[in-house]
Design a protein that fits this description.
The chain is mainly beta. The chain has a single domain (2-760), classed as Beta Barrel (Maltoporin, Chain A), CATH 2.40.170.20. It is built from five helices and 43 strands. 5% of the residues lie in helices and 59% in strands. The strands form seven sheets. It has a 22-stranded antiparallel barrel. A five-stranded mixed β-sheet has the order 3-9-10-7-8.
Length: 761
Amino acid sequence: MKSYNLILTFLLAIWVGNAVANDELSEIEVVGTSLLPGLEIEKEKLPYEVRSFQSGDLGNESSLGVSDMLNQNIPGVFTNEVQGSPYQGDVTFRGFRASSILGAAQGLSVYIDGIRINEPFGDVVNWDMIPEYALDNVSLIPGSNPMYGLNTLGGALSLTTKSGLSHPGKAARVSFGSFSRKKLDVSVAGKFADGSDGDYFISASHFDESGWRDYSDGKISNIFVKANKNTRFGSVGIMAYFGDSDLLGNGLLPSTNYGTEDDVGEIQRGGLYEARRDAVYSHPDQTKNEAGLIGVNYQNYLDDDTQLNALAYHRYGRQKRLGGDVEAEFESDENEWEFEGEFNNSKTRQNSSGLGLNFSKILNNHQITTGVTFDQSSVSYNATETEDCEVNSIRKVICDAESETEDSAKVSGKSKTYSIFASDTAEVLSGIFITGSLRYNHSKVENTLSTPDEVTEELVAQPKESFNYSKVNPALGISAKLDHGLNLFANASQGNRVPTVIELGCADRNNPCLLPTGLQADPYLEQVISRTYEVGARGRIGQGFGIISLYKTDNRDDIIFVSTDVNSREGFFTNFGKTRNQGVDMQIIQDFDRIRITGSYSYLEATYEENGLLFGERSVQARPGMRIPGIPENVFRLLVDWTPQDALKIGVTFIATSDLVTQGNEDGLIGGDDDVIARDASVNGYQLVNLRLRYEKSRSLRLFAKVTNLFDERYETYGAMAESVFTSAGEFVDAEQGPTLSRFVAPGAPRAAFVGLSYKF
């Protein structure tokens, strides 16, 4: 009830605020209605709220990367630190994820200049491969909007890059600070020297850190190039970037100990996490990424009200993973447990390409956009296992020449998607706008799996599998511009997500696979269908702006990864009949002379809506209304920016979240299937305070500093039940007792400080 009282209070504030507001028109903000460049539309005409940030809001002082910026500024966004690296983020928006973690239930699409960068294998987002310094605008479009393509269930993140016209000249930025973190960015841009009607933008970046946890070094480098040229036939542009990274992520740490699985006792606090939050469970856990993208676009204004756009692209990705894991097996002959290490390694090669055509037209009171797209991808994946390895005193897995390495799985797969879409925004009455959209998707996914023979253990190719998916996705919305700057909106939309190669290759509960290293020949998975309903209001409040949005999304046949062993990532993908994400997002921005205050609140119920089994350390019986793990119900943010003088800006950010349901404890029970007791193992909410400072010494020189987690809050951002083989001292548990049932957590980063400067030549 408290949440609904807050909603009513906020709505009342909007109406009262606007009742006393003057009638001056606010600045008209326009946004694009599709991914390809096209005729823009007034933001107030759209039946949903687009949250956008320009390059000045992205940078340096307040955020580290795109995922961090989203977490600090956008209602409905939550990030966790499962991987332990700032560039291996796991971002959720209204319960849907855009994650670098293979096996995460993806539901957000990410685009750069109209090109979707979710990987074909698992639909993951490699945040480390995004050329952050080249970004000019970041826009988050909520809901299952059919204009934003296949697999867009909870929203689309659209990233647009700088050009020689928007950011001319030379610039450099350097920063350094805690954890030996160093970052360098440079750019050069302008018009072509030969006087031709064209421009260019080139940037390069390098990031290096030792990390705040043990054995968590990270390096990232990228280069970005963009050029545009106007001809009598229209504007032609080319964009390309290349990047590589070497990141060490360390995963979860055992915290609260509940005894052995078959003899669950009293809570015993004192796992590795309590001893040292910067510790790791086992290592190494290394990911090497290499990615490249090239895109060519064409833009032509046929007349003042008509525009034609075309896009072609090719993208590639290469990934190597090295995972040092610890296995526990019970030896019946000796009546005790045996612990040993193993390497689970994989190599992935991905290629994708596509074409898009977009036509925009203003016709009387109608603004029409229509187009077609074609996308195809290919994936090659090879996994190996090295067993009989040692685990030393610092929990490092060491394999020598006598350790046997075997191929555990191979897969090659292809996918093709054809789409046609159309949208029309029309003013049906004065200040009343109706937007209707429709998209047809047809996808074909095929793969060939090779799995070990039960006798020879050699890889044997399985019969080729081929799956076809088709769906028509509609959307309808209304926006009403009222007096005093108040704008009401409502919409209903549908989207679909097609299973990826890895999901179709790991979908048999009787043959769980080891992510990211094991696949099985598996049954058909249904495509996910999401239906979203949303109502909201936005408008001026005093000297600022306010927005509230209430939404409900029902997901049918949601694809979830059911883990059987958190530590070794073993499990399978399956359809879950129905899940629901519903809640409210609200935000108020107020300006007071030299102070700007931004407050936001999000309430989210992410729940299972059918009975079903969730497998983990034990079988959990899902029931309607049960919360989905890893997603807080409440998130509150308060940003205060003070400008005591024109050159100086000081900011404070406060973030608070409520508790998180722990995976494997969704029903409030712990223990083995035969010995279960009631225990709430939820992860506590937390409160963080961050400071930032910016000093403009001149128009060319800017100094900045920031402190994150000012009060050094000890907090966790995710939890999962699993068996631990280590004591709080990092030693193996007693061989007769065996592994202990523990709550594993994702530790949040401690206090850190960073300084830097940027200079425009």
